[in-house]
Specification:
The chain contains 27 helices and no strands. It has about 650 residues and is mainly alpha-helical.
Length: about 650
Amino acid sequence: MFLKHFTLSRYNIKYKIKKHFQLLMLPLKYHTKLPILPVMALTLAALISANVFGDPTLAAFFCYSICGTVLFITACIFYFKSNTKAVFPAPLPILLFGVLWVYYWLQSLIIVSPSFNNRHWFLLVNFFVLFSYCILYNTQKISFQNVCTVITIIAGGEAIICLAQYFGLLPVHDSLYKITGSGTNPNITGMFLAMALPAVLLVTFKSSPVYQKLSLGVLFFMIAALILLRCRTAFAGGLVATGIILNNRYQLLKESKKRWSKFLLLIFGGILLCLLAYAVFYLYNLKRASADGRAFIWKICMTMVPENPITGIGYGRFEQGYNLAQAQYFAHGKALPQEITNASYVHMAYNEFLESMVEGGALGLLLFSSFLAALLLLPLKTPLKAGKFRFSFTGLENACAYGGIAAFTVMSLLNFTVQAIPVMGLMMCYGAYCMNSALVTEQNKLPFFLFTGRLLFSHASVALLCSTAVYTCLSVLLMAKAYRQNKDLPKLAKEIGTKAALNRLKDLEQQLSGSALYWQNYGNLLYVHNKFALALDKLNKAKTITSDPDLYLLTGNCYRKMGDYKQAEQAYLTAKHIQPHRFAPQYALMKLYANTNDTGRLLQTATGILAMNPKIPSDKVVLYKQEASAIISKIKAKPL
């Protein structure tokens, strides 16, 4: 009897689990069978991190680019199957985003030296993703709520990974941090979770009871993960998005005006301002060194702007240009001690508007700002023409999409967002829905592109873009293959020989001519086999793309091996000024001064090494300090 009861109970448990799983998958089962799959793949692809191409971020770039182009091709198929009978004007944000990419493409061809790089491909893919969502929303092949359900599930998984890393159940991808999520940078994970908050809140407010319970659990995990990640940018973006959504849901401003007097509103507003000021002060002191470091980065950026105020230094060239500007600033002895303490090797400006100004000049800043402004202002417009087009900001879905755009804009003031692949992916999703929901016509919602005109012109435009997407997908696949081969060649050289490895590297030049990893790898292989002059040629090509301090260290080593000590010193000093608190450049300088018998600079450098405190203790640092101490003792032991 007991066995029979146990069997029935076990059957009931299985039945309940199966029933609940079917309920959870119900919103995704109907109405969106095919289109939701590339949407899900796109969101997951943005979170991939694997060192299979020489840089962990390249895995997300390639996967996102392939999934983004596949999504666009899928959307184009639905476009042509929809049998559209009319053409509607494209919203201004799509046109501005397209013009922004065209400007950066022309800039790489005409204004600056040819430098079409991964950033150009990434921007083009995001244009395809934005347009894909527009088509799929318009043809009603996907619903915004179902997309938000997918985002909720993925964000919940990301939050659980963060919590598991905090409790030591999963490994961290970067030893510098306690939590990173599925990637290597906790900032990207935090901003992704902040951007996912609007989707989770929509599912919480508008889904079935089962999904509401799921989303509440996800929300709890996300908040816990955001607190543990300690990303101040994510806090700001999440609060802005949540405030917009809650205000729309409960009409907080409208109700407060009805129920409270002006005097009470003023008092409440003053309290809010005090709380906001305290929050800013608290977040600043939470990671004060980081905040001061960003302020220093913005200071250097402002010195770069006047050099190319109209056209900028070139899209994707910020890292290369900034670090050299910082090195020059330190070399001139202008830096304050606190600035030297907070300085490091920098990849981005931590402010998208400022970075757009540096890379694209006034034109780049204008186009990027106009794109965001058009999205923010589009739902707030009044009717253009009665009965034809109406722009509104009603409904919780619109509020969630608008909250995501507002969060992205706020975070763009404090951090990098365009290069954060999962963050940019969600921005395209929210932006497309905001555009489509803002445009309401008397007829059925249909796909649109470019200007009002003949149907043939609209179809031809989409067909041209679809062909471009196919070309982009194939190009990215070939590029991924080339990056993979480039990464494996140093190990392969031991098996096939140096000459064969160099020949293979030469074959990859057409695909990877704009890659710093390629030229560094090429130069390093030549250096290892004592071909210093040839190595310098390849390393100098890499220096036109990046200002990685390792690149300057290797360049200095080449010059030192060739006996050109002056050029070697200059390369080592550049590496030192890019990363003032790194031991390797200081040690290289110490060895150089020892070879040239420059006792004064040798003593100064060795003393500096002893005074430095490592961020991460290592055996190399111990060795550097021991050699520096021995050199100082030897110099002091010499008779005057």
